[in-house]
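Review form for a predicted model. The reviewer records the input and the model, then writes brief findings.
Reviewer: anonymous (R2)
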Amino acid sequence: MHENAPVLEAAARAKLGSRYAKRVRESGMLPAILYGHGQDPVAISVDTKKALEHIHKGEKVYTLKLAGQSKEQTVLLKDVQFDYLGTRVIHADFARVDLTERVRTRVHIRFIGDAIGLKTVGAVLIHPTTEIEIECMVKELPEHIDLDISGLEVDSEITAGGVKLPSSSMKLITDAHASIAHIVLQKEEVVAATAEAGAVAGATGAQPEVLTAKKAAEGEAGKAPAKPAPKK
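Model under review:
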């Protein structure tokens, strides 16, 4: 499955630290770290545009060509770091792997089909997560897993245990009871929330504030309340 893994050309970084990493990013390169297989970690940089093109597609396995080394390496994307806004990738972690090695990683779930339950007025699809964690051989690692939700009805749910893995040798690590997709009626949620608020108000004896009513303590037209006449 990954014999034709995308190729990333990398160069070692001699200087470390946030200031130098910023310079690397300004030059169009993405700072990264390469580790694993009992070898020392190596700070590297890869072409930002090419790397993000593959990362955004969900690809996890790459062939890495490190400048100065004739031997190519198979690597697994383990993690990416975003900026403080959470919108731009500023760092990546790659681990050395073998194609037959078993690894644990998260895989994107891609929903396919039109859920029958969404034909009901007020029905909405809730998906708490779009990823599951699995264990499999590197060569079997999928870019994504398709999940057919066409049969999902109102008040029905698909859990992680209901996701069909592409290979029998794959193992689900995510809790099998974790919710992946669930259809609910939005109007029921609103009614429930209103009823709950009413119950709380009734229990405390609280009354809703009328915003247009004038408060005696505030006076009229925003003026301060009149002072009482002095006693004679």
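Findings: The chain has two domains: 7-97, 103-188.
Further findings: Residues 206-225 have pLDDT under 50 and may be disordered.
Recommendation: see findings above.
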